[in-house]
Each structure stands twice: as structure tokens, then as C-alpha cells.
Amino acid sequence: MKKRLLMQIGLVLLIIIVSVFLYRIGKGFQIIVENKNNALDGITFEVQGPVRVIFDDKDKLELKENSADLALLIGYGEHKIKVEVLDAEGNAIKSIEKTFKLSGKEGDLLSIPALLSGSERYIFKRE
Amino acid sequence: MKKREAAFNLKRFLMANIVPIIFILLSVFAIPISQFSASYLIQEMLIRLARNSFLVLSLLIPIIAGMGLNFGMVLGAMAGQIGLILISDWKVIGLPGMALAAIISTPLAIALGWMCGAILNRAKGREMVTSYILGFFVNGLYQLVVLYFFGYLIPIRSPELVLSRGYGIRNAVNLLGIRNCLDYCIPLTIHGIRIPLGTFIVTAIFSFFIIWFRRTKLGQDMRAVGQDMEVARSAGIPVERTRLISILISTVLAAYGQIIFLQNIGTLNTYNSHEQAGMFAIAALLVGGASVAKATLPNVFVGVILFHLMFVVSPMAGKYLIGQAQLGEYFRVFVSYGVVALALVIYEWRRARERAYARRMFRGEA
User: Fold this and answer.
1) pTM of the entire structure?
2) Which residues lie below 8 Å from residue A82, measured CB to CB, with a gap of 6+?
């Protein structure tokens, strides 16, 4: 009887753990990707041109100068971003790759000019 | 003698399969009139087979246990929908979202299935009508929860889900995050026809589960209970418990079936999606040649194909035949309710005939 109860409690715990795991790997976060001049901590990061942004090697976004778009990233873990600055013909003239973590809340803003300029604060929670 | 026996068997075969035969004849008549191409029809049938098979399969276990067609499967469908509403609010996407919706719906479906089973044990011999009315009752409870408790007692953060008054779920919930995530998780296209392989694999696993389940001790007990409750009780089988488990399993599987169904559709109609789930699944099973007392795996798949083939071709056939697509729409609603009524009438007629035969045997007249 006791063994059976322990097994049932164990099963419930296992289901809870699996649920939390599924939540963490499946949670979607919508972030704003901005290719606009941005002033952060008194420093202004300027737009370097139209860009192609690739998240986790699959989701692609093309942003013109002074434009923004939404991206949907899945999971709490680390995400990969690849930014290519494009010339007039659409060829990549500069490329940068980084990994980042989300704040875990909705409405993170990712500033492409800040990322291209090497700032570590290129992703932050929008006020 | 042999000739007479063959003729007799043919008659019996026709009588036993009258519903699928009518549907095959209707399809043969309606397909050329509808002017649909073969590739379109194949694609549609594959999608609908993936969408509906699991729901229809969930009906098999109560039939084995002699409880007839489980109209109470809508209870499971409601549990599945609550899981889907919650994952939509939490924005859990893709297969993890679907799996999480299934986990959330499981305890709800177990509770509802237990309640349904317990009530049906008190309404032996009238299970179908009882479960049908129970569906209406639980629908009321579901509406209370979804319309008043969500956003009020149960926190819902997404403004796109909540009604403008601040609580209650909107009429339509967009399931874009999980749309087709199972169907096309393994991409396969043959001659331009996309195969929903992921759902087919899940359905195949479930079909094998049913085959295995029938051979287990519990499955054999269910068959014994389905054949004769008193004999099963004399043999030491806990009849009430076995019946309750069969309804419980069916309700849980209906919850998963509804999740699979809605991931294929991509939109949850909060207050209506579950209402037709039971009726259409039951109609499809009956169209496949099943009866209230006997249903097999081929009945499920043949039924889904024939029933949904009629669904697809009848509006267009109606349009080309008499210039009104609406007639085809009426026809398919008439067909789905009509086939359930026909199956129930045939079942009752056979039962009355068997009883009369048994009485004659008892008197030594036969």
C-alpha cells in the first residue's frame, strides 16, 4: 500500500517535472528587433545599413534602415543571432554572430546597431 | 444447397454493411459531379484522416465493454480545449505546447471520465442517451468555467484571449503556435501531396495499443462484460469498475483526439468546437460499418474516409447538380444525423429480433 502510494506520488512529481521542462523548451517570446539609431547609456549607436537577421539558424528577418519587426523565439535557453549588413544588391558586407539569453518576459528589444557596434547591452527589456 | 447458402451469406453481408454500401454508392455518384481532381480529393482525405481518426478511435473501448457509442466523449474534448486555452495563454509553442496541453487535460479528462462512468453505471442499458444528456450538462459547466472563471479565478494574461470586459475567453482562439506541428513534424511530400506523417504515426501507435489492449486481462474482462454482465459478474469480474475504466480511457483519449483535431484546424472555436466532436466521430464510425455493439479498426478508417469524402464532395455536387452549394451542406448534416438514427434503429430492430428468437428457443418453438 505504502509502496503504491510512493509510486503514485513519484509519478505525479515526474509529470510536474516533464510539464515544467515542456514549458521551458516550448515557451515562445516575441521580441522587437530594431534597426534604428539607438541611444544607450549616453552612447548613440547608428544604423549601418539594411540587415538580414537570422535567429537560431532558421528564422530570417530582413530589415531596412530605420525599421523594426517582431521575431518569435522559442525556449528559455540560449539563442543564436547572426546579423548580416547588406549592400544595395543584397550581398552581405559584414557579418556578426552572437549568443544571448532573453529576460524571460515579454517585450525584449534587440538593437541591431548596438549589437553591430559591439555593445553588450544590445538586448534589454523595453521600458 | 451450396448456392442457397451463398445467396444467404450475400444477403447477410449486404444487411450487415448497408450503411457503408450506401455511402460508397453515393460517393461513386457524387465524385464525378463535384468535378474535383483526384489529387485534391486524396490530399483532403489524408488531412481529414489525420484530423479525425484519433477521435473516432477513442470510441472503440466503450463499445468493447458493451456501453455502446460514447456520446460522453465531448467531456474529453472539453478537457482538451481547456488545455489548449491555457497553453495559448502561456504561449507555449509547437510539439512541447501540444504535449503540455495533453498533460493539463489528462487530470480533467480523468475526473470527467470517472464522473461519466459512475453515472453510466447507474443507467445500465441506457448508456447512450445518458451520456448524450451528460454532454449537455458538462457543456454548461464548461461554459461557466470558460466564460466566467477564466480571467477571473484562473489568471489569463493574454489580452487577445480575454473578452473586453476583463474575464471570459473570446469566441475564437488562434492556435497558430501549434498549427500542424504534429501533422508535418516529419515533412513528406509525394507527387505534390503533403502527407501528415506525424499524426499518422501517432494514430498507428494508438491503433496498435488498441490491438494490444484487447488481449490484456482488462481488455478480455471488457469483452466479457460487453457480452453479458451477469455472466461476467459470476466469473468474478468487477463489472462496474471495468465499465468505469472503459469510459475513463475513452474520455482521456477523446481529450488527446480533440487536441490533435484542433492542431490540424489551427483555430479553437471556444464555445462550439467540442459540440459536434462526438456526433461527427460517431457518425464516421457508423458509416464505416460499425454498430452499437461491434466496432473494429477498419470500421474507423473506412468510416472516416467515406464520411469525409461525402463532406467534401456533397456541397460541390449540390452546386453543379442544382446550382446550390447550400443543398449539399444540408445534405451532409442530414446524413450525419441520419446515419446515427439509422444505426440505432437497426441495432434496436436486431436486438428485438434476437430477443424474440431467444423466447422462441426457450419455448421450444424454433
Assistant:
1) 0.89
2) A53, A54, A57, A95, A96, A97
